[in-house]
């Protein structure tokens, strides 16, 4: 395998998805000899599906990953960077507390203000690694992007030591699905649910389908719309979803009797209803879709 390997330390970003699990166990089991130190990290936003948390815990035990569970700790003072806390399966947030802290300071995230990946994943991870002595430009970061998602790679991330081992190996979605069928541990979440069920990066069709199947997961974004409409930069009154749409708008779409619900593996091509990002299913750091400006963030130095 050709690896963009510059350092003897490796951080593996485990998002809690199937592809990420495949990558983590592959590197730990077959390529462990390439690095002196390996750390597997999972950043919990507080809005992952409960099966995602269960999957991370089961993968940890099944594959011996020694996953470090992290959550964002947001400093409300302007100019002070987000840090981290270490949690575990039993203590991890399930009600969105880290996410709400980010929204309270930075405002509701959306296509224009893409703060959630940066503050809930990237900064807690880099904060933790710094706390154990891993300074910027002293370690590689493995990111779970497949060969059929090559358009999501970030040149900035690669310059900073990030790399995409599954792209190096030519691993595609079909390979990951075939692997999962042979495993004792399975995620068990439909594609349109994803890890973060109501993610604003998803297409309208996926969101409306989720609203029909699990309307309760939209309680959190609905609450955030009410509590923090004017938080953060910009002109105020932000909305999560494309086209300045609210949770109520998504529910109206779900009520439409002519809506064709999203079905895993069935391609739709409606230019409006099906516009979305793969990040909406498995949000990874170090991707162009995440808009995280690579792996190093100066705010973590403050």
Q: What attributes does this structure have?
A:
Rossmann fold, 6-stranded mixed β-sheet, 33% helix, disordered C terminus
Quick overview of this protein structure:
The chain is 33% helix and 9% strand. The chain has 302 residues and is an alpha/beta fold. Strand 1, helix 1 and strand 2 (37-43) form a beta-alpha-beta unit.
Return the structural class. Answer: alpha/beta
CATH class of the largest domain: Alpha Beta
Basic shape:
globular
Arrangement of strands in the largest sheet: 4-3-2-1-5-6
How does this structure look, described?
With 302 residues, the chain is α/β, with parallel strands linked by helices. The chain is built from 10 helices and 6 strands. A 6-stranded mixed sheet has the order 4-3-2-1-5-6. Helix 8 (204-213) packs across helix 10. The N and C termini lie far apart (38 Å).
Secondary structure layout plus pairing:
Blueprint: E1 9-13, H1 18-30, E2 37-43, H2 50-63, E3 68-73, E4 83-87, H3 97-106, H4 116-131, E5 140-142, H5 155-159, E6 162-163, H6 165-168, H7 173-181, H8 204-213, H9 219-227, H10 247-255
Parallel strand pairs: 1-2, 1-5, 2-3, 5-6
Antiparallel strand pairs: 3-4
Helix pairs in contact: 8-10
């Amino acid at each position: 395998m050709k690896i963009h390997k510059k350092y003897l330390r490796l951080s593996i970003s485990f998002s809690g998805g199937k592809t990420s699990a495949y990558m983590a166990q592959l590197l730990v089991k077959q390529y462990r000899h390439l690095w002196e130190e390996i750390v597997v990290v999972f950043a919990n936003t507080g809005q992952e599906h409960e099966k995602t948390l269960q999957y991370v815990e089961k993968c940890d035990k099944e594959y011996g990953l020694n996953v470090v569970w992290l959550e964002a700790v947001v400093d409300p003072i302007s100019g002070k960077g987000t840090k981290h806390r270490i949690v575990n399966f039993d203590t991890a947030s399930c009600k969105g507390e880290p996410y709400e802290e980010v929204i309270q300071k930075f405002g509701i995230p959306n296509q224009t203000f893409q703060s959630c990946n940066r503050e809930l994943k990237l900064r807690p991870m880099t904060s933790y690694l710094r706390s154990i002595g891993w300074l910027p430009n002293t370690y590689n970061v493995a990111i779970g992007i497949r060969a059929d998602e090559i358009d999501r790679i970030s040149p900035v991330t690669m310059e900073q030591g990030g790399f995409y081992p599954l792209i190096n190996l030519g691993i595609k979605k079909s390979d990951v699905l075939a692997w999962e069928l042979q495993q004792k541990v399975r995620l068990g979440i439909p594609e349109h649910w994803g890890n973060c069920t109501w993610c604003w990066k998803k297409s309208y069709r996926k969101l409306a389908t989720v609203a029909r199947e699990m309307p309760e997961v939209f309680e959190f974004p609905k609450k955030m719309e009410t509590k923090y409409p004017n938080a953060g930069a910009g002109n105020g009154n932000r909305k999560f979803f494309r086209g300045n749409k609210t949770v109520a708008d998504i529910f109206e779409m779900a009520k439409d009797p002519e809506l064709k619900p999203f079905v895993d593996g069935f391609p739709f091509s409606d230019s409006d209803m099906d516009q979305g990002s793969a990040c909406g299913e498995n949000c990874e750091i170090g991707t162009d879709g995440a808009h995280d400006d690579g792996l190093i963030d100066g705010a973590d130095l403050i």
